[in-house]
Amino acid sequence: MQKAWMRFLYLVCGLVIFVSCKNKSTENKDNIVFNDPALKSITDRINNKPENAALYFERANILHQMGKDSLALNDYKKAASFDSTKAEYFSTIGDLLFEHKDINGSVQWLQKAIKLNPEDPKAHLKIAKMFLYIAQYDNAFAEINVVMKHDPYNPEAYFLKGMIYKERKDTSKAISSFLTAIQVYPEYKPAIIQLGQLYTLQKNDIALKYYDNAFKLDTTDVFPLFAKGVYYQNIKDYAKAKEEYTNCIIHDHQYADAYFNMGWILIQEDSLEKAQRQYDLVTKIDPVNAGAYYNRGLCSELMNKKQDAISDYKQALVFNSKYQEAIDGLKRLGAK
User: Fold this and answer.
1) Do 308 and 299 contact (CB within 8 A), yes or no?
2) φ and ψ at 114, to 5 degrees?
């Protein structure tokens, strides 16, 4: 198993383009961030003990929670430089780089973590994610099992098992794994969301409970509200779906997917002008959204506004040259 993932890691190193999450902030802006009330205390402690690795690691975790990943990365690297004996420091860097699509950089840090601690759970779970990404499910399971052998209550391990089963279309085992994840850690949000999505596909209204629980855990993330709209849309309860999409928009005026789906429902209800306004909003929020231009063009075509439809179909093809519906729309209207 060890040799298998090592071969994979070397292959990834040769194939993946380096994507940097290098911090572009100026030093002055960094100082403003570090003076934030959430960081000032830990920053003062670092200033008093500037070579204390644990303090840098603690601040990096706070920065990561704040979405300041470039600064977090700098602190994680400082922690590793001041204490090169902690596998956790190295695997955390690998984890963060992986999330930012820097697979090449991630691999190097995970290798260091495994060398320091062959049983490091974070490194093994990140390697499992890599195997999941390239659909090498047996290898992914092997990495997960290394973790579960020493930590049978690791929620992320059960979550990843659930994702593998989901990819393999084994819904019952996927649900079982996600349920186990939240049994060992009731606030494990990724598993809660996955349960909502799987039950949505089954048109089971228990999905709504999971979305509500997910939103309660983090009211800054409106995806669960949007997902409730999708549930109602799937069962063709368009009135409730629109209510949920409206609620999502109230919480986040820039949530383009809610406007998009609202527009789709309005098309089904023959409210073409209202639908078109929804897609207008999407093009303003997400100017490169080919689907929004196509659907706005479709509204124009259905309202016999041929030139407007042609213009939007062509714009959709600017952002997605293989958008077959837009190509077909131009053919219907006799345009090139």
Assistant:
1) no
2) -65, -35
pLDDT digits 0-9 by tens, 221-247 = 999 999 999 999 999 999 999 999 999
Q: Please report whether residue 75 resides in a domain.
A: yes
Show the domain range for 57: 1-134
Number of domains composing the chain: 2
CATH of the domain at 315: 1.25.40.10
Q: Is position 233 within any domain? A: no
Q: Which whole-number Å values give the CA distances from 161 to 1, 2, 172, 217, in the listed order? A: 17, 19, 12, 23
Domain termination residue (choose one: 82, 99, 134): 134
pTM metric for this prediction: 0.75
DSSP states of 142-207? HHHHHHHHH-TT-HHHHHHHHHHHHHTT-HHHHHHHHHHHHHHSTT-HHHHHHHHHHHHHTT-THH
Judge whether residue 15 has pLDDT over 50: no
pLDDT value, residue 182: 98
Average pLDDT, the chain: 90
The angle subtended at Cα 164 by Cα 163 and Cα 166, nearest 5°, is 60
Amino acid at 128: A
